[in-house]
Design goal:
Number of strands: 0
Distance between the termini: 24 Å
Number of helices: 13
Largest sheet: none
Helix content: over 70%
Shape: globular
Order of helices and strands: HHHHHHHHHHHHH
Structural class: mainly alpha
């Protein structure tokens, strides 16, 4: 049991550090779980989704004031209503496809080989987009057009392949559609709120029978640790990408993907 709690702490740190940057938190968790040895059972797979709620609560705590202002604006501000509609439009494709393809995603795509190849391929795409001579037209995530929100939502569905990265797919789509780095990254935060909350609720509904008292304690530890780690990441990420771009995350993805492939080929 002690070692289980140690694993929960380590995986909570990995989740919190990687959830909101374009490196794929789910992919990292799957690789870490394989290394620590509880990725093959259903609880191990669900743990990767369930502790994400700690990270989303960190995001909600940081955005609490803006969320409250947005809520109040629903009653008297057309722009606030339009933005909420845009987030819901962007969320809808993932909600539908995620529910319909849940079993395939968990049983087929949660595969370390797929994760490693996706990390490398996603790094190449991120580097390509970061080096394009784009002319941003949108500098505020709340001002995108409604079709733009929908296309970003479609792009998010690609991240159901572990290793692709939810934030990475939404950031790339937003930048190609005219958003600057900061606005693209910030919208990935906004879209994470319903997407991750929905994934948590659906996984809890599907797999609630696994959660014994000991499992709940392990999830709680991972949850708390992911909350703390994610809070620090959210506080610094927007400023970092505005100044430096995504090169760090490209190298991060490629190195982890290549090392993972080497380990898998060696029979680890």
């Amino acid at each position: 049991m002690t070692f289980d709690f140690i694993k929960a702490i380590i995986l909570g740190v990995v989740e919190g550090l990687t959830e909101f940057i374009p490196v794929s938190s789910t992919g990292h968790l799957l690789l870490m779980q394989r290394f620590f040895g509880f990725s093959d059972d259903d609880f191990g797979k669900s743990f990767a989704v369930l502790i994400q709620f700690g990270a989303i609560l960190a995001l909600l705590s940081i955005y609490a004031t803006r969320l409250w202002q947005l809520f109040l604006g629903l009653f008297n501000d057309p722009q606030s209503r339009r933005f909420v509609l845009g987030v819901l439009i962007a969320f809808l494709p993932a909600a539908v496809i995620g529910a319909l393809a849940y079993k395939i995603i968990k049983d087929v795509l949660f595969n370390p080989w797929i994760v490693c190849f996706s990390l490398i391929a996603g790094g190449a795409v991120l580097l390509w987009v970061d080096r394009l001579d784009l002319k941003p037209r949108y500098h505020d995530a709340t001002r995108f057009t409604l079709p733009m929100y929908f296309i970003i939502g479609l792009a998010q569905c690609v991240s159901m392949i572990p290793g692709v990265s939810r934030s990475g797919s939404t950031i790339v789509a937003a930048m190609l559609l005219g958003a600057d780095r900061r606005a693209a990254a910030e919208f990935s935060f906004w879209l994470a709120m319903p997407t991750m909350a929905g994934a948590f609720a659906y996984d809890l509904y599907k797999d609630h029978g696994q959660f014994t008292n000991s499992n709940l304690a392990i999830i709680a530890v991972g949850f708390i640790v992911s909350f703390i780690a994610a809070w620090f990441v959210v506080k610094t990420f927007l400023g970092y990408v505005s100044r430096n771009g995504f090169t760090l995350f490209v190298w991060w993805r490629v190195i982890v993907g290549v090392l993972g492939l080497i380990a898998l080929a060696a029979g680890r």
